[in-house]
Design a protein that fits this description.
The complex is a heterodimer. By secondary structure, chain A is mainly beta. In chain A, 0% of the residues lie in helices and 54% in strands. Chain A has no helices and eleven strands. In chain A, the strands form two sheets. In chain A, strands 2, 4, 5, 9, 10 and 11 form a six-stranded mixed sheet that branches. In chain A, strands 1-3-8-7-6 form a five-stranded antiparallel sheet, with no helix packed on it. Chain A is globular and about 40 Å long. Chain B contains no helices and eleven strands. In chain B, the strands form two sheets. In chain B, strands 2, 4, 5, 6, 9, 10 and 11 form a seven-stranded mixed sheet that branches. Chain B has a four-stranded antiparallel sheet with strand order 1-3-8-7, with no helix packed on it. In chain B, a hairpin with a 6-residue loop joins β4 and β5. Chain B is globular, with a radius of gyration of 14 Å. The chains are: A mainly beta, B mainly beta. At the A-B interface, β4, β5, β9 and β10 of A face β4, β5, β9 and β10 of B.
Chain lengths: 114, 117
């Protein structure tokens, strides 16, 4: 079955430093989504990427979808303490019978030291 | 506009018992998916309901079953609970007709924290 790997598992940064997490799928994806989960909370949708090579920005966050639609990255510029949490990528393969099923990576836990 | 609501928020059950978790999807959404999130892991897909039928299923045993009602709300049932079933159970709602546009954005509820002792 489809597998989504995410690295690193943990990332500790000083406030103001940049942060990047990477996501790789074993199969070509129809789209990829990114979620943020605060400690004790639930996953909150950040963004969805659909097109090959797509790049989207949300303030200090930059999301990329690889040309082959098998990998993705999330980059945060100048981290803030409010960025703390676990960032998950989730791949979707909208072909066949897999509509709407999300396969999540293991997540990257981001800690920001003030 | 109500988001996804789940009940109860926390639950403690004894091994071997049965449990029912409930989910009301976001207004206007017709598809409900259930996920299990063990501590320190990403959510794992259990199954998805649309038009009151199970449409997809992940790698979970038959002890996990579900139901969707005409108002799109859903239940997750787990029989013969094991200690390993302790996890956060998440409900996610979406709109199926957007899948063809490769838009599978899901809205998650707060989850039900199930502890099996």
């Amino acid at each position: 079955g489809q597998q989504v790997m995410q690295i690193p598992q943990y990332q500790h940064v000083q406030e103001g430093e940049d942060f990047t997490t990477y996501c790789n799928s074993s199969t070509t994806l129809s789209n990829i989504q990114w979620y943020k989960q605060r400690p004790g909370g639930h996953p909150v949708f950040l963004i969805q990427l659909v097109k090959s090579g797509e790049v989207k920005k949300q303030k200090r966050l930059t999301f990329q979808f690889g040309e082959a639609k098998k990998n993705s990255s999330l980059h945060i510029t100048a981290t803030q303490t409010t960025d703390v949490g676990t960032y998950f990528c989730a791949g979707s393969n909208a072909g066949g019978t897999s509509y709407g099923k999300l396969t999540f990576g293991q997540g990257t836990i981001l800690t920001v030291h003030p | 506009d109500a988001g996804v609501t789940q009940s109860p928020t926390h639950l403690i059950k004894t091994r071997g018992q049965q449990v029912t978790l409930r989910c009301s999807p976001k207004s206007g959404h017709d598809t409900v998916s259930w996920y299990q999130q063990a501590l320190g892991q990403g959510p794992q897909f259990i199954f998805q309901y649309y038009e009151e039928e199970e449409r997809q299923r992940g790698n979970f045993p038959d002890r996990f079953s579900g139901h969707q009602f005409p108002n799109y709300s859903s239940e997750l049932n787990v029989n013969a609970l094991l200690l390993g079933d302790s996890a956060l159970y998440l409900c996610a709602s979406s709109l199926r007709r957007r899948f063809v546009e490769r838009d599978t954005e899901a809205f998650f509820g707060q989850g039900t924290r199930l502890t099996v002792v």
